[in-house]
Amino acid sequence: MNILVIGASQGTGALAVRAALEKGHQVTAFARSPNKLALDDPRLRKVTGDFHQAASVDAAVPGHDAVIVTASATGLGAFKENPLYFSQGTGYVIAAMKKAEVKRLVVLSALGVGESRRLLNPLLRALTVGFLLKVAFADHERQEKLVHASGLDWVVARPGRLTNGIARGRYLKKTGIESVPASISRADVADFLVEACEVAAWVGHAVQLGG
């Protein structure tokens, strides 16, 4: 496949690029500073772009079989500048995919969004979703609603607390609102994001991830 990863320079996005290459795919790494991505491969193309500029996204999407959105703010200050950080950019991605007739969309969200909120420990739910990360979670809600209504072959990934551990490949994937381990490595999340591009099993689902 030819996969576009938006937000590819670091974190889960960078690991998704690596996972896709390891699985034999061609990858476009889209980011404001794609050269931060410490990977070189003949099947990798690095593109400088802005998730929050429609023209930039429009130029990047055509020619791909799937798009993975992992773009995330580096700090809470970004949400003060733009409380629609996730949803605005994702809206541009959806519009660009429809124009280019690209169908598979995989979006990184978070455990605690939507109906999965009740899976969180009550104290954690009050502290994060209700206070510290209130604005970010509210925008993830908007982002997911846009994805659900997109008409695309969409998959939403909802991991728990992200760690920097290795990919173990033994994580849980639940389409129902069922408990999963509270944390998961970014590497395992990246593995799932690529899998969600490859197979139809997760299409039309928000998938709770933990392990």
Overview of this structure, please?
Helix 1 (11-22) packs across helix 7. With 211 residues, the chain is an alpha/beta fold. The protein contains seven helices and ten strands.
Keywords:
single chain, 211 residues, alpha/beta, eight-stranded mixed sheet, two-stranded parallel ribbon, 10 strands, globular
Q: Kindly report how far apart the N and C termini lie.
A: 27 Å
Provide the helix percentage. Answer: 25-40%
What's the shape?
A: globular
Number of helices: 7
Strand content: 15-25%
Overall pLDDT: 95
Number of β-strand runs:
10
Structural class estimated from helices and strands: alpha/beta
The radius of gyration over CA amounts to 16 Å
What would a concise description of this structure say?
With 211 residues, this protein is of the alpha/beta class.
Secondary structure blueprint with pairings:
Blueprint: E1 2-6, H1 11-22, E2 26-31, E3 44-48, H2 54-60, E4 66-69, H3 77-81, H4 85-100, E5 104-108, H5 122-132, H6 134-148, E6 153-159, E7 161-163, E8 172-174, E9 183-185, H7 186-198, E10 205-210
Parallel strand pairs: 1-2, 1-4, 2-3, 4-5, 5-6, 6-10, 7-9
Antiparallel strand pairs: 8-10
Helix pairs in contact: 1-7, 2-4, 4-6, 5-6
